[in-house]
Amino acid sequence: MDWEYAPAPESAAIGRIKPRYQMFVDGAFRDGRGSDLVTLNPGTGEQLSTVSTASSEDVDEAVAAARAAYDKYWSKISGAERGKYLFRIARGIAERARELAVVETLDNGKPIKESRDVDIPTASAHFFYHAGWADKLEYAGFGPRPRALGVAGQVIPWNFPLLMAAWKIAPALAAGNTVVIKPAETTPLSILVLAEIIADADLPPGVVNILPGAGDVGSALVNHRGVDKVAFTGSTAVGKAIQSSLAGSGKKVTLELGGKAANIVFDDAPIDQAVEGIVNGIFFNQGQVCCAGSRLLVQESVAEEVVAKLKSRLATLRMGDPMDKNTDIGAINSALQLSRVSALADSGDDEGAERWTAPCAVPDRGFYFPPTVFSNVSPAMRIAREEIFGPVLSVLTFRTPDEAVAKANNTPYGLSAGVWTEKGSRILGMAAALRAGVVWANTFNRFDPAASFGGYKESGFGREGGPAGLGAYLTNAEDGN
Predict the structure, then answer these.
(1) What CATH number is attached to the domain comprising 270?
(2) Is there a domain that residue 363 lies in?
(3) Are residues 322 and 348 in the same domain?
């Protein structure tokens, strides 16, 4: 007998979605001078809300407000006082966690259980963690007199809107900087709820400013002369443009860009555990993760078994309404992203790979793409080289550890990797040989605020999280570095 899950929808009313949102500048919500944008619910394709956006003049005013707040107050108070504000924000996120999870799912399309169990708790944890560092910076390994850089201009992506905001804002404030941040055009709502939490925490006006808008707003922000530090998470193409435009400016820059991670399974790996890790590595958040394990490298002797078990597991995944607590695979964030995923998957067919699609019923409205596995993939195919940013897995095989390393490193990216084996020595050897900023052992997609995250090559440079992430927002008063 086949068992079916009864619908278990979360209430959209809990999100308290407003018909219209405003930007947050100098401690107040106000309309921007840019054109309003409409944000959609990816699960249905219907309009969710309208958001006022910033203009270049608004960017000027936000940077000026951040500078004034830095000069007059934020750079002068003690680290312990800064920490108190961060603790308040962390508690505010925790207190409004259910509301924030609903807002995130409605605006982004990810399953409610992921927003509820991963995104929102981890965002709160980042503020709690960095609150603890605020009065201990001199012990973080950055010299005897570390000090803030000034005004941080930050741009975040649409795949983890609130979590990426926490990754950026929390360390910047803990280090004593003020912030101007631009959310992604398609997912501005959760950070504007965060602005309410920031206001409720009585954070001084101008310490955090939030400017919704499109790419022109982000460009004006990162290139603004009043910004001392730039932090960007997004595509490699935009990251390259930012690096080029800031060359010679003297600004500190952190870029966390794309990835094409290898998830490597050896013949001695715990196969059932590895299959769960493969599923989590590529189908979490519909594969819209920069560190997604989108290339599966399996040792030849177990490749048939691993792929068979993987397909059997994928057949049990439930795709549908992101607001249903039983949903495993939600919606792609936008029609544009769905088109890109579809086009790259079609290239796999054109180049001779063998496509297998999970037997999921695709909803008749919204933006959905079923879990897809390509076998008989060669390293030269587009699906093995380009970041798809969707629920598409390419399977390649290897015979020896050296071949696995060669294939894993055969990519312009270098953000993450996974290794599945029972041998500790092999794990350490592979971790040393893989050119990736993060290597997971017998797990995948595990994050902690105390652990640094970042990449090499076209995956960017700099680290976020942990003491290294704090260092990106600090200089030393004695040597000026």
Answers:
(1) 3.40.309.10
(2) yes
(3) yes
pLDDT band for position 477 (cuts 50, 70, 90): low
Decide if 290 is catalytic. Answer: yes
CA–CA gap between residue 409 and residue 404 (Å, rounded): 8
Domain count, the chain: 2
Residue 325 sits in the same domain as residue 406 = yes
Structure tokens at 70: 């830095």
- Helix (H), strand (E) at residue 38: strand 37-41
**441 phi and psi angles, rounded to 5 deg:** -115, 120
Q: What distance in Å separates the CA atoms of residue 41 and residue 189, rounded to the nearest whole number?
A: 11
Q: Which residues are paired to 456 by β-bridges?
A: 414
Choose the catalytic residue: 114, 185, 256, 464: 256
Note the pLDDT tens digit of each residue in 376-434: 999 999 999 999 999 999 999 999 999 999 999 999 999 999 999 999 999 999 999 99
Q: Residues 150, 292: one domain?
A: no
Say whether 71 sits in a helix, a strand or coil. Answer: helix
Q: Note whether 94 and 213 are same-domain residues.
A: yes
Q: Are residues 97 and 29 in the same domain?
A: yes
Q: pLDDT by residue (tens digit) across 62-82?
A: 999 999 999 999 999 999 999
Cross-strand pairs, 178:
151
CA-wise closest residue to 175 among 219, 203, 140, 214: 140
Q: Does residue 239 sit in the same domain as residue 346?
A: no
259 torsion bin: left (phi>0), alpha (psi -120 to 50), beta (else)? beta
State how far the Cα of 213 lies from the Cα of 219, in Å rounded to an integer.
11
Cβ contacts of 71 within 8 Å, gap of 6 or more? none
For residue 215, report the phi and psi dihedrals to the nearest 5 degrees.
-60, -30
Range(s) of the domain holding residue 345: 262-448
- Check 104, 290, 360, 458 and give the catalytic one: 290
Is residue 304 annotated as a catalytic residue, yes or no?
Answer: no
- Return phi, psi of residue 462, to 5°: 90, 165
For residues 96 and 232, membership in a common domain is answered with: yes
